[in-house]
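Researcher: Please predict.
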Amino acid sequence: GELPYAIRLSNILKAEKTDIVMSFMKGQTIILSLSKLINPSKNTIYVGNIQNNDAYYAYGKNVYIPYRYLIKFLYESLDYILVPSEAIKEDVQKTFFIKEDKFKIIPNCIDFEKLDKLSEEHCDVKGDFINIGRLADQKGQIYLIEAFKKVKDRFKDVKLVIIGEGDLRDTIENKIKELGLENDVILTGYQTNPYKYLKNSKIFVLSSIFEGFGNVIIEAMHFGLPVISYECPGGPKEIIKNEFGVLVPPKDVDALANAMIEMLENKEKQKHYSIMSKKRALDYDCQSYAKTLISLKML
């Protein structure tokens, strides 16, 4: 089904005399690769952009080796493959045997001005801790709720807000009831504007088992929230670096709970990491990203 789209795209690129064209995710990157192979635009830079680090999980078995070499051929026809983190590069390289010189690591950028405007919307929900992500195994909210129970045992008036929807909704609701946290964990469901909730919260907690990059960390940092995260493969480790937030071992409920307790009760530590969050967020503005993209044309 990709071929008609690739032909149409190649015609558009030639007609528009495009300087740089970028695809996002695997399906679109295959279409872009085909468009260059079929009818390349001479002065156009072709860039694929991969955001997930689950390729080896999906295609790592030997039965997929012919497919993996096909993707290698397609991806390497592009001028560059952009990835936001070292972990994603390693995953794509390991899965599809891509040459080192095809990769450019450019972290994602955030439109902070847009976030600020959206955060002004009224919000009645206030959380001591907040987590944003699909209700899915990857996002690890079950571990977060178990850790929060330990926090709740120390602090009476404390709230956890979880923003997101997904297949694990029933499982998570059952866990909340099992631990007697019905009045303390707020499940908002999917929200088109999570930024008003971030602005209204104190501490951001990422409980993911793995992440491609983790834009939500940067968004939380922009609002000055101290960040606690599992040290999972992907962006969180590269963003936080144990300097701009607190990293704990993945799936370790006790370690996560202890980090949450310490951050909540140590106001100086909370203030320190709030300052460090705002400082780190500045590294991900869109102007820097645009300059880096423009530089690809000069290489």
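Model: Strands lie at 20-24, 45-49, 80-83, 103-105, 127-132, 160-163, 185-189, 201-206, 227-230, 246-248.
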